[in-house]
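Slide 14.
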Amino acid sequence: MIYHGGPLSLAMFGELRNPRNYLLGFYPDAPIPPLDHIVWTAKPLVAKVNHSIWVASCDCGAKGTPTPGCVVFMGLLLGWCVRCQNGGTGRGWRLIAVPSQEERAEIERVLLCRPNPDDRNWEVGETIADLLAQNIEHGDPIPAEAA
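Slide 15: predicted structure.
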């Protein structure tokens, strides 16, 4: 499975959480703003797949890679960077840009052919053809429809 915040919060906490409560589960003392504090004018965070999980990347450049990072909740596309705390945008939540539902399904279909979850990665700009070529190059299967 390629996880996003909903299934991941169920798997990790046994309950469905929203992005704020999910982060508070790892960082209970962090100054995570309420979900209605959204900076609508901020540049959106950008979604990608990293090790079988939809996450968003911040362009803050802050050092370190905290776990769990900014997990994307597909039903509530809001992100907050635990490294910079969205300091450059008023410390409020930022929108997250994700591919269309159809494109996400195609991306996930190809990635799920990779047996090792750590190899299930997608970056913005990679096409389905790129992902298929990577599977072939590494000896991983490709979806039957793509053969």
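Speaker note: Residues 101-135 form one domain.
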